[in-house]
Amino acid sequence: MEEDDKKLLDDKPLVEDDTEELEDPELVLDCVPREAEQKAGLGSSCPGIEQSKDKQKQRLTAQEKRQACLLRRDLSHLDQLHEEKDLFIQKTRGELRACRRRMELLVKQQESVAAEIAAERAANNMAAMGRLEAASRRLCSELKNERDLQAQMMAVLQQSQSALWQIEVQEGQLEDARKSAQEEAAAARRGLQERAAKQLHREMGASGKAERNRLLRARRCVHLQKELGLRQQKLVEEAQKNHRKALRFLKASLGRIREQEQKEELETREHMRRRMDAVLALKNSISANRETLRKFQAWGQAKTELAEQKAQAEKKAILAQGGDAFKHLCHQRRRQELEAQNRAFEEEQKRRKQEIVSRLLKEEAVEDRRRPRPEPPRPAGQRSLRDQTWSYVATFCDGQSTEAPLCCPLPDVPGQRPGPAQEQIKLQETRSRFYQSSPLLTAISSESVQGDGSLGGEDTLAWPEIPGLWKEDYKPFQVSKEDVDRKPVGGTKMDKDILARTMQRLRSGVIHKQVASGREFRGCPFNSKPKFIHFKDFDVGKVYKKKITLINATYTINYCKLVGVDESLQDFIHVDFDPPGPLSAGMSCEVLVTFKPMINKDLEGNVSFLAQTGGFSVPLKCSTKKCSLSLDKKLIDFGSYTVGETAIRTITLTNTGGLGTKFRFLLASETCEMDTSQSVLKLSSTFTYEDKSLYDKFTTSFSEHQMEGNESSPTDVPSQKESGKLDVKEQEEGHPIESEGVTLTTIMTIPPNEEQMEFSLGETTEGDIGPFSSIKVPVIFTPIVPGTVQNSFKVVFKNQQCPTLYFKVVGVAIDVPVWVPKPNVDLKICMYDRLYQDSILVHTRSKAALRLKFEVCKELRGHVELLPETGYIQALSSYSVQLKFLPRHSLPEDAGKYFDKETRVLEAPMTIRVADQIKPVGFTVHAVVTTSDLELSPAGLDFGYCTIYEAIRTQISLCNHSLLPQEFGFVGLPKFVDIQPNDGFGTILPLETLQLDVIFQPTKAKEYNFELICKSEINRCFKLACRAVGVYPPLELSHNQIKFAATSLYDTSVATLYVINSHLSMNSLTHSVPRIGSEDAFPVGPTSFEFLLPPDSPITISPLVGTVWPGKRCLVRVAFRPVLPSELIHQEAFQALSRKAEVKLSQKETVTQRKDQRRPSFSMLRLQNQDRLLRASASQPPELQKEDLASSSQEYQSAQASLTRSFQGKFDKFVVPCVVASGDTKDRKGTEPLSFSPHNTLYLELWCPAVAPSIVVTSDKGKTVINFGDIAAGHRGIKKVSIQNISPEDLDLEYSVLNPDGPFVLLNPTIRLPSGETQVLDLSFSPRESIVAQEILDIITKKGTLSLALMGTGVASTITCSIEGDVLNMGYVIARESVSLGFKLQNNSPLPIKFSMQLDSLSSRSRDQHRLPQFLASPDQRTEVVGTQNYSGQSVFSVVPVEGVMEPGKAQDFTVTFSPDHESLYFSDRLQVVLFEKKVSHHILLKGAAREHMMFVEGGDPLDVPVESLTVIPAFDLEHREEAEELKPILVTLDYAQLDPDTQAPPATRELQVGCIRTTQLSAKKTVEFSMDNIAALQHKGFTIEPSRGSVERGQTKAISISWTPPIDFDPDHPLLASALLQLRGDVKETYKVLFVAQVVTGP
Predict the structure, then answer these.
(1) How far is CA 1145 from CA 463, 1033, 1136, 1142, 1166, in A?
(2) SS3 1309
(3) Cys-Cys crosslink for 1488: which of 325, 766, 1262, 1370, Cβ 3.0 to 4.6 Å?
(4) Residue-wise pLDDT tens digits, 560-574
(5) What is the pLDDT of residue 1491?
(6) Strand 773-781 and strand 674-675: pairing?
(7) Cα four-point dihedral sign 779, 783, 784, 790
(8) pLDDT tens digits, residue range 1050-1064?
């Protein structure tokens, strides 16, 4: 069935898509029914099984569940198949119905066609019958196809119906299974609903429980917040109290600090002044040395010239004597080189000796440094002025800078300062390096030693710095040979230093810069991780190791090499580093650093490495164990406690160091005896200045840290002050102070102090504190006497390096049971008629309940109220009273003495009376009472007339008379009113006056009367009356405001807008009509407008005046072009001219004064200067002012460019009124103005920001007009224009498109121009014809546009030739002789023209290749101009001159020479006149013929090709020439034109030219004779020949005229043939056979 269906579908493509889609369900019908039957069997057997078994014990197994699932799937599949098959059957039936309708239609068409065929057959119309029969055949075939299709569709429909019946049968079999599945699904849904209901019930219970818990937590949180609020309030009160106390001490400390800073500032200024004086002195010395150097250079040049002159003289003398001057000079040069080498060797020996001496001194200094010194050297960094001078001069001469090097510097080791010996060694090294490396001193020493004797003492201006240094008897220090020869095994330390220096030089040669992607790497080549190697708290004798990682931070591959560690660390530090080779960027290597301490001493230094891009180092530090002790508090505040109570606070002593010590807590006034000898013995015996300075640095940094901490916390200031006082007191009492390297034994006595026993310490007041530990010490406060109690304690340590620590304890003792913690209640600033509340908290320390009564003074009972008036406070608790303050306007009169009317301050005393207590508790209420009035001015606003297209802004003042800031707002504003800023809302400060802008913009034409209401935050209203008249103008602008972008100078920004006339009807009921207020409406009709531009504005409006008809609009273009004022440019130009004139005048007067030999007196000179100034001021300015500088002048353009570069920007705002009038501008008479109404005026606001151009032209004095001048057509002129970016940022450039067909081209457009850089643009002008070209090139950036005007004139290169027809015929010439002719070329253009003459025979052309040979081509196809050439290879034609330049209007003469070397009649060539090596202006055809003899005949028809044969022409002897001579044919064709048979036509005429060639050869005959025979026969045939014989002189030709008239017996159908012999007799005899062919033609 499936194959049949597919076949049918393949045959009929009409139902292809539908059948393909509907066949898929049938494919599974074979397999589905079997499975469905099995499932149906299972389903039908299930009910029987269920009936036989108990339903309570029945459970489905996994197999049964799987079968049920498969059954449900099969049922759904059957349903889907049934639905698809049903749909397919419906579609098939629809198609079958359509097919039957088509068949009925075809049958009807057949019947109509048959009727037409019968009608046409009756009419005997065969053509129509043929057409109708063809239509009938087509209908028959279509009907047949439709019948076949119907049969196929019927078959398919039957098959589908049978398949559908099978599906229905299977569904009937599975009906029971379907019902059971539905029942199971319904039961499952009911179970799910029951479970969902239970789950919902449980969740609702849980949510209710959670809500109860949340409410309980909220109540607890509120209770805790109340308790925390009370506690926080107490803490704030105590903190404020402590703050006020600490503030007094802070002010005193800050005063002392300021005095100390001022003193240090004065010392610093004095030190800087001294340094500046030293630097100035050094600068003057360097300047003097430079002058000396320049003099020595001049002397050197003079010596060189003298040496050259001397050498020339010696050379001439040797040559005069006949010797070899070259050999003598070579010997002399070698001798000089040898002497120079000897001198250099001696200098090197001296330098080595100096180095040896310096190394010896350095070793001695190292030995001295190892031995202890009684006195420390001077502080670091304080070198003498002479040492600083030597160091600066050495650095300057080395070409180094005093700035930091590129790579990471090696930091100095802190704490190790060089001694005097080290400083001396450094000084010696600096001097030796200066002498070695300074080219200045080398030049001076060499010139001073090797100077000529001719230069006397009077010429020497340089003096040595040390007297006697340049004397002849001066001998430098020399080391004895024995000392030099003695060297220890392995070399001395000096040798090692020399080796290290040599290695350093080699390394410096290895280092090179690293450049990647155009960027040079700068910085440290490797990053260390960690950056700092720190061996902390080490023990002597142990070994410590740390590993660091070096990461390549450069751009590309780099190398790393270990250089070593500092000299001070070499005995303790060992570095294990295996060079990894090349490391890529980001790669790393590891370094192991081993530290083995031998001494208990802090060490610092660097581990140095060398990379390919430079050296770098990793800092290293080794620190010993130290004590670092600190207290967690500097102040302990116990607060307020009743007498008899006890409070305990703890203070923590912390040791963050690695060394423990003994401690003891004492009162600040107590003294104790502590022996520090033991701690001192632990120190190194060599306690030098370095150790002490390190200790001083540590203590200083620690004290500075304490100072910072004290400044940050104001509560610590009193303790610091107390400690400072105690230190001063101790010094005044003469207590010994620590000294360096001395064992300290301090004996102190502790005087008894029993006055204050409120504060005491716990049991742990002394003991040992270990490293990295802490100890807590309790502090007990037991108040005895009411009042404030304070005391200071200190912590002393056995280790003398640990400073004494101080802390302070403060407490308050009270004995009143009831008190108010806030005795002053400050209500701040209050307004009248406003209610203010506060809570008064009352505390009691009594253990019984007390009754309280609150009283207000009688003067303020109408304004202040305390609620409740009576209350009970429980034991050891607090009580809150509510204070209500409502000031009335009668408060100043009611309060009396409690109120100050000037300051408006209220101080109201309140009383709390306690039962069984005589003394009441009082507190005071403070408040500042002020008014809440706001004042608006002016009282009324009149906006006047305003159009609906504009807005009027008016300022009003809002004044706040209150002492409090008030929030205000203008409410209920109409839609046509706006208040700014902030839309009329804001906050006004006390006693402030704000300026507000009221903006009125009417919406329609009417009279406005309204009020503005300003409300304050307390809902008080303040009104402002306003009125205005709204105007509806007849015209409107599409834009009332135009904001131009920031426009560069001489750039243009353009905006467009429309003037619209929308007034079409006078009906005011349907729409608003133009009118002024309540006046009559504006008439409908043409309305004119006119823009009134302000004078001298950079605005251009086009059109200014126009008329707009109703319903139309007019386009208006507004352009903004900022320019510099012409007056400013003229002023700048005049100033420049004035400066030039003054300079010229001063130079002229200087020259005049020099020529004058007499020297006038000082008074005469002064009079002359005054006269000169008067003349300059009197003569020059008028001339300059009268001179009118044109905009194209150089001075004007230079001044304009200068001002453009210095332009700082400008912002202008223009308001351009546009007046409106009724009527057309064309209707007005003459200059009669239209009637404009001032109230109908429109306003256009223009914002015009002008900025300096981002790009300016720097070439040609800033001109933006590039004139190429006159350029010949076809040639190119190039101009270079330099542009500079003067903006602070880089700019991307874009260029306007030049005319592609135009002559201007931008050759090198630049896309990006960095800030401050200059770019040169190449502009080309290449005219193709004679034109005057002008274009604008716009260089566009995001900040503006620079316009360059390109101008140029193209001039056509026109020349004329004296040769007519461009053909130069050289005539006949004897072979191997030559003839010359001349012609002229005239230059008619205004430019000089470069020309060159080219012969085609001498120029190769690729187009001549791959072409037919000339003798094979027809005469019409022959276009070659190069004919026969010489056998010798030389050109047969030559021209002189070949190239040159023709000046404008001049003519050039040319000579052409014809020199053939063999006989030929077809010598030809083409001469091309090439202009400027490009353009060919003329083609001159050169022709010539050569003969071996002096006679020739020309004329007749050509019988051969103009190409010579490649065969070799045999040479004949003169004797056999006549035998070998053949007759040369000449064809003469005569056409007799018989146009009219009745009229006699003129005879046909031809000519033959017989010539005699002029030659320089000697010949017996000077003429050529010619004769023609058979004349009678020719005459019989109608030919007439004149003359038949004659002679021709040399250089002459004679024509033989041949005419023909048809004879009577002439047959027109056959041409007439005749012949005759023409004989020529000259130096030889030649015979030509002339063939005559005559015919009659009847047409042209």
Answers:
(1) 44, 66, 14, 5, 16
(2) coil
(3) 1370
(4) 888 888 888 888 898
(5) 87
(6) unpaired
(7) positive
(8) 888 899 999 999 888
